[in-house]
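Re: that chain you flagged

S.,

Sorry for the slow reply, it's been a week of failed gels. I finally had a moment to sit down with the sequence you sent. For the record, here it is as I used it:
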Amino acid sequence: MGKGGLVLGVIALILGASGLGFGLITWIDQGKTDFWYDYEEAIFTPNPAAVYLNVPNLYVIIELDASATIHMLFTTSTRILPDPVSFADMIFYFWIDGERLLNPFTRAGPYQGDATYQYYPVALQYSQLLTAGIHNISIVVFSETAGNFMRHSALAVTRY
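Prediction finished late last night. Pasting the structure tokens below so you have them in one place:
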């Protein structure tokens, strides 16, 4: 074998070893979770009204090895009892590590409605940079009036 064949052989060995190394790293890394999810089917009636309340039984606890951007998605179905002269909304926020994010938020409900009740689908999503460590992510709701409720709630978090 000449010098050219020897050089090609060494390059092939390096590329092969690199491929095995990347494959091993990928195989070892596949146990890490990049997606967390929670679902609550039960009805939750925010009581008392006009108070910020954590949605019970709907939270995700994640652990990050290093700082990372996460994407959060919350969905639910609400039933609103309209108020004929004012707002009857339910307003939803993300809650991370004991702190309510003021933005974004979403609201569901009419202004001066006259129906017996109205149903609204709700979706709220946001991306946030978090530091390394353990983080608790949940939802806070503010109901303008008593009698509103939510059900079939889901919270999904993805790290990317």
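What I noticed first: Strands lie at 35-40, 52-64, 68-80, 90-96, 99-108, 118-130, 133-143, 149-159.

Talk soon,
D.
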